[in-house]
Design brief:
129 residues; mainly alpha; 4 helices; elongated
Length: 129
């Protein structure tokens, strides 16, 4: 998830350079779900693997849907076809696509980790009788 954070920071820099600033609910979602969610999942991973996996799956899945919706589906200031043609445009488009790939792949892995930890009993195995 460190790579996700690095690409997110790069994408935010492209947003700033292109003068595309999120506000209100969008800003709250970006900070809470896209930035804090994955970092919190990493923090929980050592002690609460199943909770961390669930948080990662939800935050990455929601991040993926949000990014695809705002960058590729809906016309708006965030859409890749509307952003002005500048040096940062390429960074904006590539980092947006990279985030999508990272988010969906991390969400899928997190779901598998969640389900495998749900089937793995906790505690020491008892010797056969």
């Amino acid at each position: 998830m460190g790579l996700h954070l690095a690409v997110t920071v790069l994408h935010a820099a492209a947003h700033a350079a292109l003068q595309v600033f999120p506000e209100g609910v969008d800003l709250a979602f970006i900070v809470g779900v896209i930035l804090v969610g994955p970092v919190a999942a990493v923090g929980l991973l050592r002690f609460h693997r199943r909770v961390a996996a669930a948080l990662a799956a939800v935050s990455m899945g929601l991040s993926f849907v949000y990014g695809v919706y705002n960058h590729f589906l809906v016309a708006g200031p965030d859409h890749v076809s509307i952003v002005s043609s500048e040096a940062w445009t390429t960074v904006f488009v590539i980092s947006g696509a990279a985030l999508g790939g990272l988010e969906i792949s991390t969400a899928v892995v997190a779901v598998f980790v969640f389900w495998s930890s749900a089937r793995t009993p906790s505690g020491p195995a008892e010797p056969p009788a």
